[in-house]
Design brief:
The protein is 72% helix and 0% strand. By secondary structure, the chain is mainly alpha-helical. Helix 1 (4-34) packs antiparallel against helix 2 (38-49), helix 1 (4-34) packs across helix 7 and helix 8 runs antiparallel to helix 9. It starts with a helix and ends in a 5-residue tail after the last helix.
């Protein structure tokens, strides 16, 4: 009968195999994305979720699906847009006999409409919080939170908050920063995943201390909750077995 330690080790190896498969699929997804195949890339990311559920990867796949749908949606809208005929030139009134004065007066009165009552301008005194000011405050709070997430290498979550803030209040600097971050994410992710693949091989060779360092080195570049949890389990396994780090 296998011991509890052996069962735990077997469980780690199974989890390691799933992680390796997920990393392989995400590597394919990154390659497809680099080639402009956003739909194919999103499909690979979603396939990888079956081996390791990762909210960040799911969110990234959704973003790729939106990007893939944009050109198609625009084309469909163009095809569905009705073709309008050019406006006909109005007939000239030259040469027409003027209407009698009485008829002209009736016509003018018929076209006159009562002037609508103008709405009151709200009082924007210093003691009144304007909606625009409130939205800007909410956006800045989101951007501060995004900055903290970015420092923690949680780039996907940070990008989401930057965009949420921009939906509330447009800002050119934040827009540019978000665009640069979006461009950095695939590179950071690929670099981290390369380190994690090395860690997987080291762990398979029972070189746990070296594997742990590689996992953490990758996490310092790009955060991944699945890898972080795997590191926690591997660290606990090593400490329980009195293995040196």
């Amino acid at each position: 009968m296998p011991s509890a330690e052996a069962e735990k080790k077997e469980g780690l190896e199974e989890e390691l195999a799933r992680l390796k498969k997920a990393l392989s699929l995400r590597e394919e997804a990154a390659s497809l994305e680099d080639g402009g195949d956003y739909a194919g890339s999103a499909a690979k990311y979603r396939e990888s979720l079956g081996f390791h559920d990762d909210p960040a990867a799911k969110q990234y796949a959704e973003g790729l699906e939106r990007r893939a749908a944009l050109p198609q949606k625009a084309e469909q809208e163009m095809q569905q847009k009705p073709v309008t005929e050019p406006d006909q030139k109005p007939e000239s009134d030259l040469g027409k006999k003027p209407a009698p004065v009485a008829d002209q007066k009736l016509e003018v009165e018929a076209h006159q409409k009562p002037v609508p009552e103008l709405p009151q301008v709200p009082d924007l005194s210093p003691f009144t919080e304007s909606p625009a000011r409130d939205l800007k405050g909410q956006a800045e709070a989101l951007w501060r939170e995004a900055g903290e997430l970015q420092k923690a290498k949680k780039y996907d979550e940070a990008l989401l908050l930057y965009r949420k803030g921009l939906e509330l209040t447009p800002d050119d600097k934040v827009q540019l920063h978000a665009a640069r971050l979006e461009a950095v994410i695939p590179k950071a992710k690929a670099k981290a995943e390369a380190l994690w693949r090395q860690a997987v091989e080291l762990q398979k060779g029972k070189r746990y201390a070296e594997a742990l360092r590689k996992y953490r080195e990758g996490l310092a570049i790009y955060h991944n909750s699945t890898v972080e949890e795997h590191v926690r389990k591997l660290d606990a396994f090593m400490k329980k077995g009195n293995m040196q780090l």
